[in-house]
Amino acid sequence: MQTLVIYDIPSDRIRNKVAERCKDAGLLRVQYSAFIGDLNHNRRGELLLTLKRTLGKNPGNIRLYPLCDKDLRLMKEIAVAEVKRDEKG
């Protein structure tokens, strides 16, 4: 089942560690603080425990959302690419 992980963590060090744990679990980064990927029930539970240990007693919020295939097909995206400006003008 697809799993969406989102987080809001003030500490750069902890936030970077959480991102690395998500990558290690095989998730794909879709936003600065959002990852998605296919995880079964057991792997999702393992990731939850790993992220809980990583956050520890530091302030922050981490959410894991299991998404069924039907709901995932309804997902819409609005994306506008950032325009690179020439440094001269």
Describe this structure as you would to a colleague.
It is a single chain. The chain is of the alpha+beta class and 89 residues long. The chain has a single domain (2-73), classed as Alpha-Beta Plaits, CATH 3.30.70. Helices cover 37% and strands 26% of the residues. The protein has helices at 12-24, 41-55, 69-73, and strands at 2-8, 28-31, 34-38, 61-67. It has a four-stranded antiparallel sheet. Helix 1 runs antiparallel to helix 2. The mean pLDDT is 94.
Question: How would you sum up this structure in a few lines?
Answer:
With 89 residues, the chain is α+β, with helices and mostly antiparallel strands.
Q: What labels describe this entry?
A:
flat, alpha+beta, 3 helices, 89 residues
Mean pLDDT over the full residue set: 94
Shape: flat
The counted number of beta strands is 4
Radius of gyration, taken over Cα atoms and rounded to an integer in Å = 16 Å
The CATH topology is Alpha-Beta Plaits
- What is the domain total for the residues? 1
Q: Count helical runs.
A: 3
What is the strand and helix layout of this fold?
Layout: E1 2-8, H1 12-24, E2 28-31, E3 34-38, H2 41-55, E4 61-67, H3 69-73
Antiparallel strand pairs: 1-3, 1-4, 2-3
Helix pairs in contact: 1-2
